[in-house]
């Protein structure tokens, strides 16, 4: 075990969560997410224990010390709930990671990353058990457990104000670290953030593109930076789109959009465009009943063609812009990186075929898309269970009478954030693990929607003449 410069911060956040509990302590937990390059400590044979994973353990300890009750956790995992599909997926993934590399040893070839001189290259080797089978399933279990925990406590206690506070603080820290990352490089201090980049992952924080510093913020590389940012962008887009949104939501939305653009990540541009188009397509019906939505669509109808026209003209007459966009977008698939990623995806599908649809086990396959890596690792069964969970968590809706409540809007914003992360994972994720930001946002959303459903059932069991606290007894409980 090796202690790092970020270890004291890890223990500080750990004990804050223990003291505050899993609901009031949501904000220190969410504050760890913009620190994607930070580790709590290094563990022999397992690599780095990330700051976020370390605080997931703190959340579990805080809930076990408080009167939440195991019955509520079991309810989250019962058949018919998203947690049940997640439990089935985790059980199958664990079994596959332990047994499939041994049972199917040598039946197919898989890509691994290996040291070659001063660098790292991907090489094909016969399928065999490796340490990544254990480490990756362990990381998946930790990340997925955050869904179970947060869905449980927010279903029991609610607490939308704690959720919004956590998202504001996490977004603010993410903006600060992103600006500091670029400013430090511009001012000649490129290693200014090195004290928080303590993970054993390869640090690609000094990448340049045509003289422009690629933004990484508190993450090890631009891809993971944009993977987290797209979730915040989608959350603030949906939160701002509600009728009673604040100016702060608008500021955060613009800031996240600018960070995505400044990241110079191809996946970020594609996902941002696809998600935004899908979002406005699915919400077009709001024009008829929401004045704010009607104005947004009207302005977009005039602005979008103008921006597209100006962009086309600039691309035709500015060589520097042509070179930048060719490198980021138009020539990406034919670049060395693009060709290599396509090889990974192709081999992952070969692994799926050569294992008769069973997969090779989590940790054996490396891809460049969640779709191919999950099929190659977990086979058709694991992929089906995973999609069952994702679909049930992201399509869960509140009772009809609560559709326009603040809780419903916040839950929908969290679901949008998780959905955007999933969309980008289809482009970039090398492993099945969708990571803590996805599971945490989905878990809080499911918990808040479950809280509304419980309040609805409770209200039906009491007399209509009762007081507000009598009709909704959950409101008397202090949040953890």
Mean pLDDT: 84
Strand content: 5-15%
Characterize the largest beta sheet: strand count, sense, and whether it forms a barrel: 3 strands, antiparallel
Task: Tell me the overall shape.
Answer: globular
The computed structural class is mainly alpha
Strand order of the largest sheet: 1-2-3
Helical residue percent?
55-70%
What is Rg? 23 Å
| Tally of alpha and pi helices | 17
Describe the structure in your own words.
The protein is mainly alpha-helical and 480 residues long. The protein has a domain at 284-332. Helix content is 65%, strand content 6%. The chain has 17 helices and seven strands. The protein has a three-stranded antiparallel beta sheet. A two-stranded antiparallel ribbon has the order 4-5. Strands 6-7 form a two-stranded antiparallel ribbon. Strand 4 and strand 5 (119-126) form a beta hairpin. The longest helix has 27 residues, at 131-157. The chain is globular and about 60 Å long.
Label this structure with key terms.
480 residues; mainly alpha; 3-stranded antiparallel beta sheet; two-stranded antiparallel ribbon; 6% strand
